[in-house]
Amino acid sequence: MRCMYVNCDSNPEYILQFEGLQVMLCRKHYSKLLNTLNKIAIRYKKACLSEDILVKKIRGRVRFVSKKPIRKKR
Ligand SMILES: [Zn+2]
User: Is the pTM of this model over 0.85?
Assistant: First the structure.
């Protein structure tokens, strides 16, 4: 088993159900996802995993993309 995030081979510690897909993530990528949701929540007052995050599937791996524009950290 390994984290399903692209280019990551860490051991998964979290399992998310996403659009009927089971996504296993390591601690780092789970926090990354939470961080993205957090930024959306700060900017738009609310954030929802299924509504605001797009899961791009790339050769059996995943990448999370915010559907809404969020400011990048400087
Ligand atoms: Zn990972």
Answer: yes
